Amino acid sequence: MHETPIQTIFGFSPLLVATSILILTYAVIIAERFNRAIVALLGAAAVIGTGVLTQDQAIQGIDFNTIGLLTGMMILVGITKECGIFQFLAIKAAKAAKGSPWGILVMLSMVTAVLSAFLDNVTTVLLVAPVTLLIADELKINPYPLLFAEINASNTGGTAT
User: Fold this and answer.
1) In a 3-state reduction of DSSP, which class is residue 12?
2) Which of 11, 19, 49, 75 sits between 20 and 30 A of 139, alpha carbons compared?
3) What are the extents of the domains in the chain?
């Protein structure tokens, strides 16, 4: 019986090399000593350079539809932010919740869940997060609990479709 030899990279399995590159890349990103984008690109280059993936395999792994959607949404968020729409919504939301952080948390979570039923989860969070940050800034409260609640609401709402 003829067995196919297992491909190795520098004597190691491709899985071990890829895992090591991933862990090293995340460790450098978490350390926050270098720009995240540069570190991520260096990690991707290392995966290709070591032969874990070919250039064709790496390009096939990119979902250009998602990148296009996120780019478009970021452009729209930037434009609407400049127009003051988020500030208007933040003021309306704070008034509707009577300035109560719990009321704002519930209201923003509900809006996020409903939007996620119709839009992609990431898109929904990109749309709601600027409003949340403005509300938190105006009320001088920590935005993280609100953002985490919105992320969970986005996942919950996304399962409705």
Assistant:
1) strand
2) 75
3) 14-60, 64-158
